[in-house]
Design goal:
With about 140 residues, the protein is mostly beta strands. It is built from one helix and twelve strands; from the N terminus they run ββββββββββββα. The protein has one domain: Jelly Rolls. Strands 1-9-6-11-4 form a five-stranded antiparallel beta sheet, with no helix packed on it. Strands 8-7-10-5-12 form a five-stranded antiparallel beta sheet. Strands 2-3 form a two-stranded antiparallel ribbon. The longest helix has 13 residues. The protein starts with a strand and ends with a helix. Bound molecules: dTDP-4-keto-6-deoxyglucose (T46). The site of dTDP-4-keto-6-deoxyglucose has 10 residues, from strand 4, strand 5 and strand 10. DTDP-4-keto-6-deoxyglucose (T46) binds next to strand 4, strand 5 and strand 10.
Amino acid sequence: MQIMKYAFQQHGDERGHLIALEEFNDIPFRIKRVYYLYDTKEGVHRGFHAHKSLKQILICIHGSCKVLLDNGKEKKIVPLEKPYEGLYIPHNMWREMYDFSPDAVLVVLASEVYNEEDYIRNYDDFLTFIAKHEAN
Ligand code: T46
C-alpha cells in the first residue's frame, strides 16, 4: 500500500511559520468541507469506517496522533506529528485514529460535504464493498 504523505511548503522567517493550502495546487481536490477534532480523550480510538467516494487530507496542526489505514489487504500505521504534514486518504480505505496527545488538533480537508450515506461503518461490509469494486 502506498502512503501519500504531503510535506507542505512552509513560509518561515524569524517571526515563525505560515502554511497556505490551495485546492488543486496543494490539495488534489476541491475542498468542500473543513472539520477538526480536538480535546480527544486519552485512550480514545475514532474512525472505524471507510468512505465510498470521499477523499480527505488529515493534518495534525498541533500535538500528535496515529492513523491506521487498511485497504482490505494491507494495514499501515502513519504517525502525524508535524503541522506541515498532510496524510491523503483516498476512498475505499478503512481508517482508525488513535494515540491522540492531549493537545492534538486534527484538521481534515474533505472533497465533499457531510453525507452519512458515503460511510461504510461495518468492517465486513467494507470488505464486500471493495471486493465488488475490484470485480468491476
Ligand atoms: C473521517 C475521520 C478522519 C457532522 O455532523 N459533520 C461532519 O462533517 C462530520 C465529519 C461529522 N459530523 C457528526 C457526525 C457524528 O455525529 O459528528 C459526529 C462525529 O462524527 P464521527 O463519529 O464520524 O467522527 P470520527 O472521528 O469517527 O470520523 C471523522 C469523519 O466522520 C470521517 O469522515 O474520515 O473523522
